Amino acid sequence: MRKYRKWTIEEKNRHVRAYLEGKQMSEMERELDVDRTVFLRWVRQYRKNGTTVDGRGKTGPRPGRSRNLNPDSMNIEELREYVRLLEDIKKAMAFLGRQRKNIKS
User: Fold this and answer.
1) Among candidates 21, 19, 63, which has minimal Cα distance to 38?
2) 10-31 pLDDT per residue, tens
3) Nearest residue to 49 (alpha-carbon basis) of 38, 61, 57, 41
């Protein structure tokens, strides 16, 4: 299996700028030893964001999870729902524990 080089954001940006200023794609591929599709992804990211950082795998808070669960800052209804959820989780864990015991026996 081939081990590919890791490029820093600054290096990617520098190479993309060189390409956008007129350097040939074939020359860039040869010089960088990088696949055309990878380089074109860098170019697309640079044109869209002004940098080659794409943020894959680094999403922000997901909908419905933007708040920390801190019982001290909850109102009474939120606190009741929180306790109900904890009780449901405890019941589910107990049920699964019994199921595992029954399977092992």
Assistant:
1) 19
2) 999 999 999 999 999 888 888 8
3) 41
CA distance 74 to 83: 11
Burial class (CB in 10 A: 0-12, 13-18, 19+), 12: buried
> Number of C-alpha atoms within 13 angstroms, CB side, residue 15?
26
Q: How many residues does the chain have?
A: 105
Report the distance separating Cα 27 and Cα 37, nearest Å.
14
Q: HSE-up of 85 (CA within 13 Å, CB side)?
A: 8
Buried b (16+ CB within 10 A) or exposed e, 40-51: eebbebbeeeee
Which pTM does this prediction carry?
A: 0.51
- Other C-beta atoms lying within 10 Å of the C-beta of residue 52: 22
